[in-house]
Write a structure and sequence with these properties.
The protein is of the alpha+beta class. 54% of the residues lie in helices and 17% in strands. Among the domains are: 2-64, no CATH class; 67-168, Band 7 domain (Tetrahydropterin Synthase, Chain A, 2-Layer Sandwich); 241-272 and 281-306 and 313-351, no CATH class. Strands 3-2-5 form a 3-stranded antiparallel sheet. A 3-stranded antiparallel sheet has the order 6-7-8. A two-stranded antiparallel sheet has the order 1-4. Helix 6 runs parallel beside helix 9 (328-349) and helix 7 packs across helix 8 (287-299). It starts with a helix and ends in a 29-residue tail after the last helix. It is found in: Membrane. It is a single-pass membrane protein. Residues 22-180 form the Band domain. It holds the Pfam family Band_7.
Length: 378
């Protein structure tokens, strides 16, 4: 008897456990349980702890209320220009009505896949290949609108539809790659030509600017060189004028005679005889008298006067430092003064000749030397 009682108690305990398991149902978060009583829909259990009648009520389906992502395999689609492309799609959807998703459609995932394929063929069939490759956003919006409208009665909301990939045939892909390569080569050639054109333009502009600057530099250089030559000529003329004045003054102050001229002849004779090519050289006719006078000067010194008679005419030497004329008028005055000094020196050296045409008039003679008198005896 005790053993039978223990078996009965064990069976009773097991029955209680099974009864509690059938009575208490725990629904996870974001899930919904569809309860049927004798095969007929009774109610929908929310998330959490729920009590049902055991052996009468049954949780037939457990519906996931979260957003789901389903990726469909590539499907061949024919475009408007009769090209077959493979398109992969991704669907983001969510169950909003567990009852409709359970009783309105047997397999809503398969239904969404088939509806996506048929809708995709309708949309892509009205586009050519280029439009299909560049109009993904338009295809996505068209698919979403059709799917959302068709799946509404199934208790499903399509949130987003994405085209994962569009693969044209290998021959078309090869042709497209060649076209893209040709376009890239064309753009590269265009960019290279534009770069060469810009380089040529910049080089020409640089050469132009260089030529302009060189011309300006040459012009300024010529102007400065001309000014330097002008100033050099002015200073050279002033120096020559002062040199002539100095020589002329020394001639007037020294009052030379035949002895000095003879001595100058003797000094010039070695220079006349210099050089291997000088085979013949001319002796001036006055050299005999000059040597005779030089001999007399060496013995009796009769050629050199003891006292110089008559007043000496001094010549104004001008300033010690040459003054550069600042204007053309001053330069003309300086040139006229130099020419006058040269004419005066020439007139003094050759008393018998007349002065230049510009200074025509009565000749001035040195009061110390009378042109009419004969030279002193040697």
């Amino acid at each position: 008897m005790p053993l039978v009682i223990l078996i009965l108690l064990a069976l009773l305990l097991l029955f209680v456990i099974v009864l509690l398991a059938k009575t208490v149902r725990i629904i996870p978060q974001a899930r919904a349980g569809v309860v049927e009583r004798f095969g007929k829909y009774l109610k929908t259990l929310p998330a959490g702890l729920n009590i049902v009648v055991p052996f009468v009520d049954k949780v037939r389906y457990l519906i996931d209320l979260r957003e789901q992502v389903v990726s469909f395999p590539p499907q061949p689609v024919i475009t408007e220009d009769n090209l077959v492309v493979s398109i992969d799609t991704v669907i983001y959807f969510q169950v909003t009505d567990p009852i409709a998703a359970t009783y309105e459609i047997a397999n809503y995932i398969q239904a969404v896949e088939q509806l996506t394929m048929t809708t995709l063929r309708n949309i892509v069939g009205g586009m050519d290949l280029e439009q299909t490759l560049t109009s993904r956003e338009e295809i996505n919006n068209g698919l979403r609108g059709v799917l959302d409208e068709a799946t509404g009665k199934w208790g499903i909301r399509v949130n987003r539809v994405e085209i994962k990939g569009i693969d044209p045939p290998p021959s078309i892909k090869d042709a497209m790659e060649k076209q893209m390569r040709a376009d890239r080569d064309k753009r590269a050639l265009i960019l290279t030509a534009e770069g060469q054109r810009q380089s040529a333009i910049l080089t020409a502009e640089g050469n132009k600017q260089s030529a302009i600057l060189n011309a300006e530099g040459d012009r300024e250089s010529q102007i400065l060189r001309a000014q330097a030559d002008r100033e050099s000529s002015i200073l050279r003329a002033q120096g020559e004028g002062q040199a002539i004045q100095t020589v002329f003054q020394a001639i007037h102050d020294g009052q030379p005679d035949q002895s000095l001229l003879a001595y100058q002849y003797l000094q010039m004779m070695p220079k006349i005889a210099e050089g291997d090519a000088n085979k013949v050289w001319i002796v001036p006719s006055e050299i005999g008298k000059a040597l005779e006078g030089l001999g007399s000067t060496m013995t009796n010194l009769q050629g050199i006067p003891q006292h110089v008679e008559g007043p000496r005419k001094r010549v104004d030497m001008g300033p010690a430092e040459p003054q550069q004329p600042k204007t053309d008028a001053e330069l003309s005055e300086t040139n006229a003064a130099v020419e006058a000094a040269i004419a005066e020196a020439a007139s003094a050296a050759n008393p018998g000749r007349s002065s230049t045409a510009a200074d025509a008039g009565p000749e001035e003679t040195d009061p110390a030397i009378d042109p009419g008198e004969a030279p002193p005896a040697q």
